């Protein structure tokens, strides 16, 4: 941090205390300076003279290195139409002049060697050069743009890179062609005190810089370009995300709302409350931004009762830190997911997110329950989420005359044997079928799915099992089976009119599974599109524990292979956008072909039952359970309870499984 650098000055022992020498070499305050022009070629005589002067001179007479604070780096984007505070280091008690084009701003350097100037708001444009001079030395930052800066934060679903997202290759190509798109990726770490150095530098949008950049954030930027007003406006997108983290870690320390300590959620990696704010947000608050995007909640899903206040508080605390009381704050409502947190499905957390957005006119909710099938905690369908966020921003921030929200409920009323829901405009089904997603209940709170009859913006709901309905729910549960949209194709948000406490009991539809039975063995596919069961000789060879069977580990948990189909009477295929498992079956053997069309290597794991005995070494091993035996050929290594095969990028791995005895 450059603030720590204030402690280091040329000096000597004074009253027994050693004043340390300056740590100039490699210091972050100097890394970005392109024209320091300091060249010293001392002779022996000059060194003797300099040493004498050093010992005789007062401490404050020696200049600190001239430069900008590490927040400022070449290629960065500063917020247009907003005053900018520029800071840096200079000669103690000296003077500097900061220049931006024809704009000149003098400043005094404080006794601790720091300076600060405020620059007038600038329109969109660039590139510009920002310079600071003390009259003899000049430091410069070039390729500076003024535009709109957006901070994108949250946990793993915000972190997921373009290289893992559906359509990521096309998005990388499109974003990489945008010369006015700049990126800043914050390092993933916490700190126990607020930091000033972001620890990262801005970069142009290139295929390489975009590959691991947040897919949601990049998609948001790409779709902002759909607005004619933003066609040529520079965009600075900051990816400040960290998987497995709770909202408490992103909240400024000491500002959590008054909630019971037992309701506070912890983050992975031992990151405490406030520590991610200190390291990954605080450095960014020194300059204005256009708005913030927030995609988080999975780590807090087990405590939805306090999340609404936590989220509303986070938005307000960030506004205070940025000194922008009307800072737009956009929240991604969690998509469909078949799992749960703390025994509760994600419907309850979605409600908390909705309530938090209602707490401020500057909070906005992106509804996403229909963007994925819900069988993956880290869905790859990120582009549509970015697009919906961009629609909200274009309307709320940029004033575009577009439809940015799905149907909104205006009124709900009970009419004898039916419930009537009135929306703010005409509604229809997204698939051309009858409206789905509504459930109604009487006084007993026992919900039944309802038949929906639509007339423009009015939907009448009836159910034979509920003769006198009193309340209604829509798109409720972990996997909402809802299809109500407006003419723009945007979905209605989940809602309920009852006040019942959360219940953990929830039926979950499962994806289609396949079973192939032959004379020597039987296999079945499981929830994530992998093989969950392999029976030979009447014995189960795969682990039935959670995470058992076959899997492809990824940075965000096991990869899902959701596209499952029979390709022939004796062949089955499970795939996603880059990985494919194809199994060709014969009476007493199988060939498993794992294809990797992506650029990076992944591993294919086979988790074994704890009753299976493994003999032999890679690439061929025998698996035994009682009298049943399987031979597996083509693996790379054996781990406790597991076989592993490596699949390099753009290559194929083949495993052969043979029933040796049965």
TrEMBL record:
Q: Where's the Sialate O-acetylesterase domain?
A: 148-356
Q: Which organism is it from?
A: Luteolibacter arcticus
Judging by the UniProt lineage, the source's domain of life is Bacteria
What protein name does the entry list? Sialate O-acetylesterase
The record lists the membrane-crossing segments as 51-72
The protein's UniProt keywords, in alphabetical order, are: Hydrolase, Membrane, Transmembrane, Transmembrane helix
Entry-linked InterPro entries: SASA, SGNH_hydro_sf, SIAE
């Amino acid at each position: 941090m450059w603030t720590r650098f204030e402690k280091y000055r040329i000096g000597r022992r004074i009253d027994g205390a050693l004043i340390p020498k300056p740590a100039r070499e490699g210091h972050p305050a100097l890394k970005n300076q392109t024209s320091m022009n300091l060249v010293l070629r001392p002779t022996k005589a000059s060194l003797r003279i300099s040493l004498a002067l050093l010992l005789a001179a007062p401490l404050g007479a020696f200049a600190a290195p001239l430069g900008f604070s590490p927040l400022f780096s070449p290629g960065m984007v500063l917020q247009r139409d907003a005053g900018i505070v520029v800071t840096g280091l200079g000669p103690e008690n000296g003077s500097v002049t900061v220049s931006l084009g024809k704009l000149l701003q003098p400043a005094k350097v404080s006794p601790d060697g720091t300076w600060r100037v405020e620059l007038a708001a600038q329109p969109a444009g660039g590139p510009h050069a920002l310079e600071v001079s003390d009259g003899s030395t000049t430091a410069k930052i070039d390729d500076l743009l003024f535009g709109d800066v957006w901070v994108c934060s949250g946990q793993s679903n915000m972190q997921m890179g373009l290289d893992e997202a559906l359509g990521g290759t096309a998005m990388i190509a499109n974003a990489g062609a945008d010369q006015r798109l700049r990126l800043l990726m914050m390092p993933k770490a916490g700190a126990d005190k607020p930091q000033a150095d972001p620890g990262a530098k801005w970069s142009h949008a290139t295929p390489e810089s975009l590959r691991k950049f947040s897919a949601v954030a990049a998609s948001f930027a790409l779709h902002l370009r759909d607005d004619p007003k933003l066609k040529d406006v520079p965009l600075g997108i900051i990816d400040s995300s960290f998987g497995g983290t709770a909202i408490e870690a992103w909240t400024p320390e000491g500002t959590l709302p008054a909630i019971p300590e037992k309701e506070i959620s912890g983050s992975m990696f031992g990151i405490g409350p406030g520590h991610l704010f200190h390291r990954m947000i605080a450095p960014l608050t020194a300059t204005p931004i256009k708005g913030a995007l927030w995609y988080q909640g999975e780590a807090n899903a087990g405590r939805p009762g306090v999340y609404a206040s936590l989220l509303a508080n986070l938005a307000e605390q960030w506004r205070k830190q940025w000194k922008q009381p009307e800072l737009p704050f956009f929240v991604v409502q969690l998509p469909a997911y078949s799992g749960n947190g703390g025994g509760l499905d994600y419907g309850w957390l979605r409600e908390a997110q909705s309530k938090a957005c209602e707490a401020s006119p500057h909070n906005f909710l992106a509804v996403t329950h229909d963007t994925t099938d819900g069988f993956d905690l880290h869905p790859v369908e990120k582009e549509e989420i970015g697009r919906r966020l961009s629609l909200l921003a274009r309307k709320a921030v940029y004033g575009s005359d577009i439809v940015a929200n799905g149907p909104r409920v205006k009124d709900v009323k009970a009419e004898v044997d039916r419930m009537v829901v009135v929306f703010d405009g005409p509604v229809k089904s997204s698939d051309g079928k009858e409206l789905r997603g509504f459930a109604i209940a009487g006084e007993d709170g026992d919900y039944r799915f309802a038949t929906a009859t639509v007339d423009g913006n009015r939907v009448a709901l009836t159910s034979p099992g509920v003769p006198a309905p009193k309340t209604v729910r829509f798109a409720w549960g972990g996997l909402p089976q809802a299809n109500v949209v407006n003419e723009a194709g945007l979905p209605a948000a989940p809602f309920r009119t009852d006040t019942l406490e959360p219940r953990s009991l929830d039926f979950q539809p499962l994806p289609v599974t396949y079973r192939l039975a032959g004379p020597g063995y039987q296999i079945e596919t499981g929830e994530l599109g992998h093989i969950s069961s392999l029976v030979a000789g009447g014995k189960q060879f795969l682990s039935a524990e959670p995470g058992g069977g076959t899997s492809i580990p990824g940075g965000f948990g096991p990869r899902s292979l959701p596209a499952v189909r029979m390709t022939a009477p004796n062949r089955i295929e499970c795939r996603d956008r880059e990985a494919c498992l194809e199994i060709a079956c014969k009476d007493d053997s199988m060939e498993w072909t794992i294809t990797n069309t992506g650029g990076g290597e992944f591993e294919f794991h086979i988790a074994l039952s704890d009753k299976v005995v493994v003999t032999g070494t890679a690439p061929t091993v025998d698996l035994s359970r009682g009298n049943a035996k399987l031979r597996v050929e083509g693996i790379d290594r054996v781990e406790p309870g597991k076989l592993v095969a490596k699949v390099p990028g753009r290559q194929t791995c083949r495993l052969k499984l043979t029933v040796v005895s049965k």
